[in-house]
Hints:
By secondary structure, the protein is an all-alpha fold. It has helices spanning 3-22, 28-44.
Amino acid sequence: xxxxxxxxxxxxxxxxxxxxxxxxxxxxxxxxxxxxxxxxxxxxxxxx
Length: 48
């Protein structure tokens, strides 16, 4: 997968997490999955 696609996915997931937190999302399982995917992308991009 190209770096640009990874960065695009990272930005989309980060935006989604922020939106759901702002809306007080109560779906803990969804939030955990999104955060795990965000962490995986950060690790793959060597940002974290």
